[in-house]
Structure formats: structure tokens, C-alpha cells
């Protein structure tokens, strides 16, 4: 009778973490930044059907890097949690912190279970406040831990280098155009230090806009609004984007 192969719990968890990190690293990076009037989500995504960024609830947005089918399941679960909690109690009781705790429990349970593989995803849950001081951004790695972020955060394949770039250049009170340009510059940097151009049609951009009069603060920026922001304009971008985005909502 052969002796069962033994792996220490520490080594097993390290192997699972390495497996998840490699899966996440294969995906394109994305960044989430605070700006004067809200929070902007920017990522390279050639697909117009498979979104990295989505609305969860009135003031809450969701971003994810990694395997699409896995983070899409998490997104749908988050929407159901938010809808049920808002209906049962009050819309103000749905918060990014509460949602992050739910995701952390789910990811942590999956990561520590020997019966299934860990999720190859890294999440960002953001909530826009009435003022910049009230903004909340939480990063959730594959193991279910929660990291409270401020200013900017990057997840995905080249996240460490991008985060370092953003930390040196991001500042409070940036306009949307300034924050978007900084995000694109960060995403354009390769691991070897060189830069490449990311055309507007390969970008997915969304914002949580605190100045939006609607209860729902999430909107996507596409087409001519995105082009004008990348060129440095943006005087009437918010109004135009709402008009173009109304068809999606």
C-alpha cells in the first residue's frame, strides 16, 4: 500500500495563492482613481459586450480583473444582495463596505476550500460620497482580504508597477480629464519601461459622478465624450455622456 502524498497546509495555501495570482496576471490591468467630482474607472478592454466595470447600486461601482465568468458571477451576486438589502431596509443601508464584506466572505471561503480551485479574480468596490472625503474604495484580492484604498488603485497583470506610477502622480482635486489622462498613461507603460499607445476604442471608461442629479451616479463614457476628454476638453462632457448613456440605462 502506497503512502499518501502529504502537503503541509502552509504549502497548499501558498500553491493556491500562486495559482490565483498567475491567472489574474494574464488579464489586462485596470485602474480606479478619485477625482474632484467622483471616481473614475479606466481599463483596456477591446470588447464592447464583456464589461470590466458595472453598476452595483445607486452610488456603488464594481471593477474586476481576471476570469470573466468568475467575476461576473460575483457581480450578479452583489447586485442581488444590494437589491434585497435596499428593498428590505433602506437604500442608504446599501454600502460599499457591506458589499466588500460579502465578497470577502465568498472569496475567502472559496480560497480556503480544498474541494474547489480558488477564484482567479481581483475586485474593486467603490462608493462615491457627497464629498471627496466620503468616497470609499476597497480592493479585494483572490484570498478574500480587504484593502482600504485612497486616491488610486490598480489591479490585474501589471498592477504593482502601475500603482507605483499612480502614487507618484495622482493628487487630490484632479479634473476628470486629468485623471483619465493619468490613468491611460499608467496603463500604457509596459513591464520593460517602454510606452505604447492605447486608442480610445480599446478603452473602457466609467465614472461614479457625485454631481449627477439622478439617484444613480454610475455612467459610462464612450464615443465622442471619451475622445474629448482624452484631448483635454470636457466642458459639457457630463451632460453629453448622460444623453448617450441613457439608452444603456
From TrEMBL:
User: Where does it live in the cell?
Assistant: Cytoplasm
Q: Which InterPro entries does the UniProt record give?
A: Ntn_hydrolases_N, Proteasome_alpha, Proteasome_alpha-type, Proteasome_asu_bac, Proteasome_sua/b
How its function is modulated: the record gives: The formation of the proteasomal ATPase ARC-20S proteasome complex, likely via the docking of the C-termini of ARC into the intersubunit pockets in the alpha-rings, may trigger opening of the gate for substrate entry. Interconversion between the open-gate and close-gate conformations leads to a dynamic regulation of the 20S proteasome proteolysis activity.
* Xref: Gene3D superfamilies: Glutamine Phosphoribosylpyrophosphate, subunit 1, domain 1
Q: Which Pfam families match?
A: Proteasome
Which pathway does this chain act in?
Protein degradation; proteasomal Pup-dependent pathway
Its keywords, alphabetically, are: Cytoplasm, Hydrolase, Proteasome
SUPFAM superfamilies membership: N-terminal nucleophile aminohydrolases (Ntn hydrolases) (SSF56235)
Picking any one GO molecular function of the record gives: hydrolase activity
**Protein family:** Belongs to the peptidase T1A family.
Q: How does it assemble?
A: The 20S proteasome core is composed of 14 alpha and 14 beta subunits that assemble into four stacked heptameric rings, resulting in a barrel-shaped structure. The two inner rings, each composed of seven catalytic beta subunits, are sandwiched by two outer rings, each composed of seven alpha subunits. The catalytic chamber with the active sites is on the inside of the barrel. Has a gated structure, the ends of the cylinder being occluded by the N-termini of the alpha-subunits. Is capped by the proteasome-associated ATPase, ARC.
Query: In UniProt terms, what function does this protein have?
Result: Component of the proteasome core, a large protease complex with broad specificity involved in protein degradation.
Q: What is the official name of this protein in its record? A: Proteasome subunit alpha
What gene, per UniProt, encodes this protein?
prcA
Amino acid at each position: 500500500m502506497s503512502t499518501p502524498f502529504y502537503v503541509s497546509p502552509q504549502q497548499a495555501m501558498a500553491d493556491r495563492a500562486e495559482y490565483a495570482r498567475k491567472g489574474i496576471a494574464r488579464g489586462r490591468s485596470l485602474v480606479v482613481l478619485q477625482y474632484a467630482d467622483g471616481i473614475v474607472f479606466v481599463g483596456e478592454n477591446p470588447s464592447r459586450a464583456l464589461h470590466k466595470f458595472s453598476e452595483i447600486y445607486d452610488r456603488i461601482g464594481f471593477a474586476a480583473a481576471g476570469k470573466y465568468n468568475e467575476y461576473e458571477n460575483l457581480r450578479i451576486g452583489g447586485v442581488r444582495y444590494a437589491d434585497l438589502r435596499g428593498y428590505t431596509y433602506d437604500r442608504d443601508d446599501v454600502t460599499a463596505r457591506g458589499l466588500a464584506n460579502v465578497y470577502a466572505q465568498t472569496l475567502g471561503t472559496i480560497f480556503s476550500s480544498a474541494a474547489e480551485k480558488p477564484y482567479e479574480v481581483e475586485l474593486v468596490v467603490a462608493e462615491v460620497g457627497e464629498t471627496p472625503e466620503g468616497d470609499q474604495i476597497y480592493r479585494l484580492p483572490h484570498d478574500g482580504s480587504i484593502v482600504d484604498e485612497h486616491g488610486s488603485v490598480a489591479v490585474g497583470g501589471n498592477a504593482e508597477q502601475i500603482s507605483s506610477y499612480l502614487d507618484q502622480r495622482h493628487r487630490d482635486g484632479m479634473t476628470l480629464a486629468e485623471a483619465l489622462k493619468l490613468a491611460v498613461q499608467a496603463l500604457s507603460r509596459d513591464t520593460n519601461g517602454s510606452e505604447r499607445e492605447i486608442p480610445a476604442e480599446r478603452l473602457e471608461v466609467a465614472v461614479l459622478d457625485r454631481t449627477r442629479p439622478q439617484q444613480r451616479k454610475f455612467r459610462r463614457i464612450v464615443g465622442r465624450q471619451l475622445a474629448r476628454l482624452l484631448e483635454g476638453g470636457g466642458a459639457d462632457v457630463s451632460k453629453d455622456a448622460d444623453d448617450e448613456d441613457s439608452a444603456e440605462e
